[in-house]
Amino acid sequence: MKTVYLCEDSVEGILSGVYAAWTSRKGHENVKLGLMGNEDTMELFCQYEEVPVSAENADKVVQAIRKKISEEAYASVYKAALSKEKDRGDKIYRFLIYGFHFGARIVHMLQVQEVYDIFQMCRHIDHETHMLTGFVRFVEMEGNLLVSRIGPKNDVLVLLAPHFMDRMSGENWVLYDENRKKAVLHPALRPWFLVDLISSEWEKRMRKASDEDEYEVLFQRFRKSVSIKERTNPTCQRNHMPLRYRAYMPEFSHGLEDS
To answer: How would you list the strands of the sheet with 31-35, edge to edge?
Structure first.
């Protein structure tokens, strides 16, 4: 009977699951990794075991990947763990089976389906992160605090934070992922840190600041003034600026998307 190890939906949780499955000695074909919360797709003839998060076990997996495979492989595993794919835990596990066998060259073996799966997830995450570095908009709250709301498909907050810390090191800012209810906080001239489970009160305040930003009308007027109606190309616009980003951009709010 196959054993499905259910792990927490986080990088540390998935790596803890990898450790539990690998050290079970049940055979790779007899184990599978799943994420807690996806039990609605439970398989027949499987037993399910929940894996508690263990920083120690997760770190053992990290060190093994770095030493026995490569730093590049670890970077790929880390990014893949941030993906929106529901089966990313098991795909990471299958990738590591090949990785520990072939070593550093595994990251270039795209003919192997398990490697290609990880490559695809990393490519999607890199693309979304790159897009957001250009589309993120900050508004000012009381106390000179800059706030931005985003709704990414993938869990890219920790990939975005270094970009904005480099460019806004002297500012107090918050980057809030409203899909996952967590945020990156950056005190001026200090390192950023991640906060889970933002309170509903803070979420309301951030929404209010976004809706009442005094520069929003200026953004909209500027966009409208520089546009040339005869050269409007909605398809081209969507290719360069997908619709899902526009809900968080003041120049596209309040029904002016098609103006």
So the answer is: 31-35, 2-7, 46-50
End-to-end CA distance of the chain: 59
Enumerate the H helices of 109-199 as residue ranges. Answer: 113-135, 157-167
**Which tens digit of pLDDT belongs to each residue from 75-89?**
999 999 999 999 999
Q: Dump pLDDT digits (tens) for 170-180.
A: 999 999 999 99
The residue among 163, 162, 132, 165 whose CA lies nearest residue 149 is: 132
Which of 143, 191, 140 minimizes the C-alpha distance to 164? 191
Which tokens in the block code for residue 94?
A: 């299958």
Tokens read off for 208: 């209010």
Q: What is the b/e burial string over 50-81, where b = at least 16 CB atoms within 10 angstroms of the residue's CB?
A: ebeebeebbebbbebbeeebbeebbebbbbbb
> Cα separations (Å) of 36 from 5, 53, 63, 88, 165?
9, 12, 25, 12, 32
Tokens of 102: 């072939």
Please say whether the beta carbons of 136 and 148 come within 8 A: yes
